[in-house]
Amino acid sequence: MAAITTAEASSGRVPGAGDAGTVVGIDLGGSKILGGVADLSGRLLADDEEPTRHGPDAPFLDQIAAMVDRLHERAGRDRTLLSGVVVGVPGTVSPETGLVALSPNLALPADEPVGALIARRVGCPVEVLNDVAAAAYGEAMRGGGDGRGLIAFAAFGTGVGLGLVLDGRILHGARGRAGEIAYLPIGADPHEAAPASASGLFEDRVGSAAIRARYGADAPSVAVLFDRAAAGDARAAAVLDDVARDAATGLAAVVALLDPDALVLGGSIGVRPEFAGRVGLHMNRLLPFEVDLRTSALGRAAGMLGAVHAAAETARADAALLAGRQP
Questions:
Q1: Do 155 and 272 have their domain in common?
Q2: I need a surface site. Which of 83, 187, 188, 307 has the fewest CB within 10 A?
Q3: Whether 180 contacts 201, CB under 8 Å
Q4: pTM of the full predicted structure?
Q5: Residue 99 pLDDT more than 70?
Q6: How many whole angstroms separate alpha carbon 226 and alpha carbon 273?
């Protein structure tokens, strides 16, 4: 089970909101699924985590449905009162078709919307968001902020992505591709390198696979590399500093273009203070102004809590609309 702190579980509650019914938020990743069930005020009641199942016919779809049932059992809530589910997925979501694309780390159905496939299994409306956008929304609405201003959330882990929230609203872009910074054209000759890149030139330099490749054939996990650097391993420290330097190059472009109120780093790599510190130092050399650079307040739960908050807001809005139509 995910370790969710009391502050994470209770933040974002809307005073006066009713507690009848439930909503579920799911953070679907290539390595794990993290889910949470909440009442309609957004108060987290229970959470769960398990490794993502891969294989033919997208077995994670049934896995999500089973998790929805299990979350209600753990919370002691009536599963039939589920109002809606929001799922964050590692890819772009078309606002027109609901189809998911650009998902190199998880094989998602390409011929039918993931939301529709999950809705058939759980029996309620399902909304699908980009996972980093969901995390950005969690930070903006539940991470200590009040939802105002422009929040840019950059996730560094297996891959890299960016989520944008402006005054409490996620910015998806015209085709759902806002924040796909994995494809930033960096490097000495991006025109030559881009056609051979499967995941994007920026991700090729700052993703976990790239970090291990920089270290060499004997590279351990990225977590172990951080431990080695902290213990004085000069080789590991140099690799991580080079990655932070490249990360700062991409993020400086984001800041120069968008001028966000805050730039939040998350993901398994981005949330590390030592990485964020190095990124900040390198950004200071690139930009002639200060940047409000922070690490995620919600940590690994940001995506799930953002999905929970979005689901609760939708459920409350639907309930208010229904109440307004009644005589």
A1: yes
A2: 188
A3: no
A4: 0.90
A5: yes
A6: 11
